[in-house]
Structure prediction request, 295 residues.
Amino acid sequence: AAAPGRRMSHGDQLARNARKVPDRVAFEYNGHSLSYRELDARTNRLARGLQTLGVERGDRVAVLMLNRLELIETYFAVLKLGAIVAPVNFRLSVAEIVYVLDDSDATVLFADHLLAPRAAQATGSRTLVVSGGDHEDVEQAIDYDTLLETDDGSLDIDVDENEPAFIMYTSGTTGKPKGAELTHENLRANVTQGIAWVPTLREDIQHVMLAALPMFHAYGLTLNMTLAPFIGGQIVLLPSPTKELLTDTLKKHSLTWVPGVPALYNTILDIAESKGYALDNVRAAFSGAASLPSD
Prediction:
């Protein structure tokens, strides 16, 4: 819990939901879901696993993953320790990944199995943790699940809202990518502004939120992973916004909150029209990255 006189950090918010709405689904991916209670417990265990790797307050942990449950768990576990997440664009080349790792001074790199070969080439002397799938051919990689084999008791770490939470890297179109620090309070301010713009984003409405935007980017990070815990929302994670995955998602879920880009909305509307899926439950959509067509 937050210490008297300060606002809750992002990890505090997750722990609050684990107490207040423990059985509500927090995140779903590929048919697997985690409640807020389960997510809080797993991130506590992962945070303790990170401590066994020597990760402490202020250390930087890089994350090279597609949208998946392990990405969410890693983000929260790092934040609970008072360490700093450095998301890595999964479209970068090996040389570009090395630059981000060096510039952020990351000591650990988390990667999912699909990106593990590229991660292994970039890791150097850093610790590499790989999640999901078959990665036995990646030498000296630590299996993600082994870090969860620890006590899931609460963490007695008081993280101040003014401490850094993320280092978000620019695209580097005019030079080298630049890392911009976001504090826990910055995350809260972004969420507060989003809720002010969209008053239906309230805790008393059980939102089902689409996360098709990549969470190495501030747009996807803010409108999904950082917003959901503040309103007790359920996030449906998609590793990529393919037509097949979107069709399956629209079939199974009555989405209420759909942040995206114009191309994503066009695909969703095409699917809904061709399959006869209703979008009546969508209360709000938030568009960025490009202008919306007038029609």
In short: The radius of gyration is 19 Å.
